[in-house]
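User: Fold this; tokens only.

Assistant: Input:
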Amino acid sequence: MDDVKKAEYEGNLGCRPEDRVEPEDNGGARSIVERETKEKDGAVDLMKRLLDRENLNRAFKRVKSNGGAAGVDGMTVDEMLPWLRKHREELLQSLGNGMYRPQLVRRVEIPKPDGGVRKLGVPTVIDRMVQQALVQILQPIFEPLFSEASYGYRPGRSAQQAMKEAKEYYEQGYTRAADIDLSKYFDTMNHELLMNIIRKEVKDKRIIDLIKKFLKSGVMENGVKSKTEEGSPQGGPLSPLLSNIYLNEFDKEMERRGHKHLRYADDIAVYTKSRRAAERVLESCKQYLEKKLKLKVNSEKSKAGSPLKLKFLGFALYRTGKGTGIRVHEKSMKKFKEKLKGITKRNRGRAIQQILKELKL
């Protein structure tokens, strides 16, 4: 990354050679935080927590270990540490005094197996680090508030656990389901609604403003800059948490109505005991999601049916004389076989190590 691109940033933290963004014996970060983040009106001083030395070190190490592509400035994860050593004080000050400005998110298109494309956002590595630091202070606040029906992007939870729960529902007599597909969910979250939900739990205005800046940072796609008036592009560390905060409103509504449901990010299934009930639930959920949460339900992909046939998280249930089991759905298996065939073609001329890497073995 050249010096001109580096100069686009407003500040940063420094670091020791041992992959730390703040030396143990350096009190600079602590003094800046204490001067500029006094608690007001009894609100928890989240900015102080954000700029805590250990919080930032953890965020740096997480971003470094995750790797990933460079953002619009071209800075790689390997170039992050030298930059942080040089610009530590500036970054701390810009975050503490509200002058930090996220850069544009580089948007890329990833082909989907069904022929469409999924748009992913690639923030700069410094923005990713700040987002990760935000996640680390916000997750403990919102995690206890999340529904037990939510399994995606949460510590200690997985798609496998969600499917085991689906199996239990079926065995309890919930033999029909409303499978709900949201159209471009991450790109259509309403910013005003999202921020109103966050403000209920987060009283530190500086943190609220920082989240808003990330939401409004804009994107660059094929060299063209665009504003982001809604949504939170997939690809940054903050987006999964924001998506769960937003759809937790739906989870709580399902609980108020007494429905059995499961959600993994934007994949939703609501379980009922009859076909007619599943059809009614599908329609009522569509009304709530579109009118209350201002999202768009994909009517073509959303349907009511049997969990033995419907695909949820790539799986479906099956019945035998011994009971209910979990299987890979036919469509998921077909996609896997097509991918496997493409990766292992003899004429690709790839080393066996590369093939194994692509297969994630």
